[in-house]
Write a structure and sequence with these properties.
alpha/beta; Nucleotidyltransferase, domain 5; 2 domains; 5-stranded mixed beta sheet; 45% helix
Length: 316
């Protein structure tokens, strides 16, 4: 029975899926912790450990001792191509696998969302990155620079903005907001949270955990939270517009938004769509064909698509 393993590992979590290529069906899935990415210190070793901690028990539970191919979308792969190649080689030996393909989780998101075709994809979860890839090979990446330099409009960005608004309100530097009470309920005092963030190995994940509270406050009419949701929507729209400028695709240009922020629903999506509509861009939103896991499956079995320049491969 031909078996494929698809893996999506970001800063917040890791998902793995066993796929029967003969029946085109899922055998089993598993999830676990993410990592800071391949570009972090000792990134390849940390990502490999987090990935194998999910994949190995999954294979064992299904009595699989070898996979034909594995496709991985990993945060930081584009910034660390050497680490991506090393990870592919590690997986071929450790799983073991016949072949391994490793690329950025943004690339697998793009491939899955548009079924391997050209267009614009914004992946917005803990972080945020937008990719435009054309049928002619043109490529544009916008943002995805991490929680300190970018990821504007992401869960970590929105959570941080909400926590900062709560801190300002508590100090008397900003307007009152229900985010103050939400922060206290979720994290305790601002002093406690500041100390926790200082020693947290993955502060982006902790800040992103507050993003749903910002969305809830906005739905309930809190003006501070509502302004933050609008700002996040504008930031994501600007990233998509900037990325789409490089494409020569005949209008309309297909565009998809993926990631955990979609769970916020209309409080984010309505202002985002409005921001795109106000522009003169040919970008048109459409439902995703699939997600990053589908993209990981695609890159595992095909080495001829438009995403190939950004994929590291290894084989036995």
């Amino acid at each position: 029975m031909p078996i494929l393993l698809a893996i999506d590992i970001g800063r917040t979590g890791c998902r793995a899926m066993l796929w029967n290529t003969a029946t085109a069906s899922t055998l089993d899935t598993a999830c676990g912790d993410g990592s800071l990415g391949l570009g972090a210190k000792h990134g390849m070793d940390v990502v490999a450990a987090a990935l194998l901690a999910v994949a190995t028990p999954l294979l064992r539970a299904n009595h699989v001792d070898h996979v034909d191919a594995v496709g991985v979308g990993a945060a930081g792969a584009m910034q660390a191509p050497t680490a991506a190649r090393q990870l592919a080689q590690r997986l071929v030996a450790a799983l073991p696998a016949g072949t391994a393909a490793v690329t950025s989780d943004a690339i697998t998101s793009h491939a899955g969302a548009l079924n391997g075709q050209a267009g614009v994809v914004c992946a917005a979860g803990t972080g945020a990155v937008t990719m435009a890839i054309g049928a002619d090979g043109v490529f544009q990446r916008v943002d995805g620079w991490g929680p300190w330099l970018g990821d504007e409009g992401s869960g970590a960005w929105l959570g941080r903005q909400g926590l900062q608004a709560a801190a300002r309100a508590g100090d008397g530097r900003g307007p009152a907001t229900v985010l103050s009470a939400a922060m206290k309920t979720q994290f305790g005092s601002i002093r406690e949270l500041a100390m926790q963030l200082g020693s947290d190995p993955n502060p982006a994940r902790r800040m992103a955990a507050f993003a749903p509270a910002v969305a809830n406050a906005a739905r309930d009419g809190d003006m501070v939270a509502g302004h933050l949701m609008q700002t996040a929507a504008d930031a994501l729209a600007q990233s998509m517009l900037a990325a789409g400028k490089v494409l020569s695709t005949t209008p309309p240009v297909p565009a998809v938004i993926l990631g955990g922020l979609l769970n916020m629903g209309p409080v984010l999506m309505e202002p985002l769509k409005a921001a795109l509509d106000r522009s003169d861009s040919p970008i048109r939103l459409q439902p995703a064909h699939g997600d990053a896991m589908d993209g990981a499956r695609l890159i595992a079995v095909s080495a001829t698509g438009i995403h190939e320049p950004w994929i590291a491969r290894a084989s036995q």
